[in-house]
Amino acid sequence: MRKLILLCALACAGCGGHGAPPEPSPVAEANATHEYPSPAPPRQTATRPALGATAVITSFATAYINWSAETVSADMRSLAARSVGQARAAMTLAAAQTAGDYELQRGGIANSGTVEAVAPRSGHQHEYVVVTLESTTASDTTAYQGLKPAWHIALATVTEQRPGRWVVSGWQPEN
Amino acid sequence: MVGRRTGGGLALAGAIAAVVVAGLGVAVLALITSVFTPGGNACSAATGADAGAGAGIVLGPPGAGQLVGATEYGGPGDPSSGYVGSSGANLLQLPDSYAELGGGTFQTATAMGGLPYLTPLRITWGDRSAVAYKRDIGLGGGPIDGLPRVLDLWWELAGQLGIPYEDGLWSGPVKIERPPQTGAGNVLGQASSSEAAPELIATPTAEQDPAACAPEAVEGVPVTTADRAQLLPNGLAAAPADAPLAVRQVIAAGNQIVGKPYVYGGGHGLALSTIAPGYDCSSSVEHLLYGGGLLPVDYDAPSGTLESFGEPRPGEWVTLYANADHVFMYVAGLRWDTHNAAGADDGSTGIGWHPLIRSDAGFVARHPAGL
Fold first, then answer.
1. What is the interface pTM, i.e. ipTM, of the complex?
2. Residue A69's domain spans which residues?
């Protein structure tokens, strides 16, 4: 009889929630966090990882600032393919928006420039400050006529995709 | 030699004033500079005798031009101005220069809101225009042809515009506007600085609109004591001081996009909180209504859908006129539209505020509940 009581006590002790908790349902998690959990995205790979961070940023920036109304959408698609993360999202968005941008087409707007400097951002690993000198022109409107080339700054972030091979993962023009 | 711009023909007066100021001491100088205090309440200062000299302007967004008073300075007939700008720049080597007027320092010369050094402006006189850069400042003076005197043109710049050289004494109206932002980040709408809406400064001049400096001016929206919204010379609108907050917000949202080009389909597919490169009738009206909290940020509909917006019939403050082809509206009596529908004097041909009413035949009148 004592053995039976002991077994019962041991069995009852397991009812108190000890052990691994049950997996919360997505709906329960959404109710708790106000955000429906999404599965982790597949790992992104870029088409042209480069040997040096500075080299990949210079190449990316050069392509970003040199385009015409006719090429800009394809250029941004190409940049999306060779970047990951936020940079890829931003380039994908730019490609989509410029594909149907009537104003760009109608004005014959083009942008050109040179990358003047790429420098590591102090205190921020894998972040770089990119300085460009750019001109925006328009073949079918006078809006940009007479404007001198202007200095611009962007913040770039790189990720090491394979040992020694870097891709742009963040791109934020600041002005 | 550092040139201190007094504004063309006022060079001698400026020199005399400088002596007087020196004689009367710091108190008088403080009085003069207080008129131009950057970021301060320009309205309260621009009264009485100071109103003319203290009158400033609000530069609209790129492409929104306005007439202002200008003078020329420098050159062989105006040796007192020298050739070195207040910034130290040699203006002979930088002929595309202008000076912002209103004070004796870069902090106090704010007749155009205190533009940052090297701010480009497109300046048009007659049929000629040129882009010039701010490299200088000056005191300025009274209105020119009824327009606030806000900038001084380096004489070589004036010459490029075809303005006859009058030994630094020329004065007259010119049209100024911000050129569009350049660079890939800005054109593609990805630059951090291009995300923010154009800053509005509540500094309409007492001369342009005596009622526009009511103490209730809030959130950068010009305010008028008139019972209707007022169209300002720079294309922006001033809200009636007693208008409900939502109405003032609608007007503020309109002021954000005044001068944007009309683009059929423009602005659609974007969050209404976004400042789009161009708008059509329905997207622009929806941007304004969103600004007043009258539509959700993701609302996106053609003009025909707005035939069922809100409640039927005209409202007290806001009335939409919609049909399947077009929509426009009145906000506190001022028309927001995309067309030059009421004739040659209708105002802007693009999207913006229009001073004249237009026929509402064929349109359904709707209004937001309570407004």
1. 0.73
2. 53-173
